[in-house]
Structures are given as C-alpha cells and as structure tokens.
C-alpha cells in the first residue's frame, strides 16, 4: 500500500515542473511520455535550451536518454561571459531527478574559448547498458556583443 502512495505522490509531483513546455504521450498502452523542458541559462540569459526526455510515470526510474537543443534567444553580452565559470568542467545549470535511486539528468555549460562557443551538455549521472547517456548542443558567440570577449578574458 505504501508503494502505491509513493507512486501517486511521484505522479503528482512530476506534473509540477515549472520548466515543462510540452508533453507527448507515447500511446494509451504505456505510462511513458516524452517531456519537453525549456531551460533558460541563468547567467547567459540570451540562451534557451530545450530538453526532451522520457518519463515513466509509474516506474521507479526513468530512462536515461535525453536530447538537448540550445539557441540564442536574446542578446549575449561580454558581461555575461565574464560572469560564467570558464573551467574545463564548466558549471551545472539544471538538475532533474530521474529515479528514486539517485539517478539524475544534468545540464552543464562549458565555454570553448578558442572557438568562442558555449557548449551545453545534457547527461545522466548513472551508467545504463555500459554507457552514460548524453547529448550536446552548441551556441556560437559569432555575431554577438560577447564575440572576442571570450578570448580576451582567458
């Protein structure tokens, strides 16, 4: 009985995601849906990432697969680039639980200073079938106010 209550609570909480912009049903004979989230970069506010992932509403864990597409949706300034983490690890912008067993999906931003490009990687924190599932999208700084600022600040 406790498992049923926990399952219902998880089902209710999955509907509370403020980033969700779409929900695609995979059919009437499955409890899995494709969830579409819009993630705005908190420091580089001119970038929006859209992430799709599978949610298995009545399972204890969601599949690890995800896909990410990031685009410039506003100005990107030199000041924004000056405030971001420029280490090779970058910084985590978003985390979403994918399991009650400590698996999560994360989105990390990394700056490629040589090519003046922001890289956004979506990845699972738990190995599945011998692999950590991940997806990459890039946003070039070309044509923005921030262009060349990335190289100057090295």
TrEMBL record:
It holds the Pfam family CreA. InterPro entries: Uncharacterised_CreA. It comes from the Bacteria. GO terms for cellular component: cytosol. This is CreA protein. It comes from Arsukibacterium tuosuense.
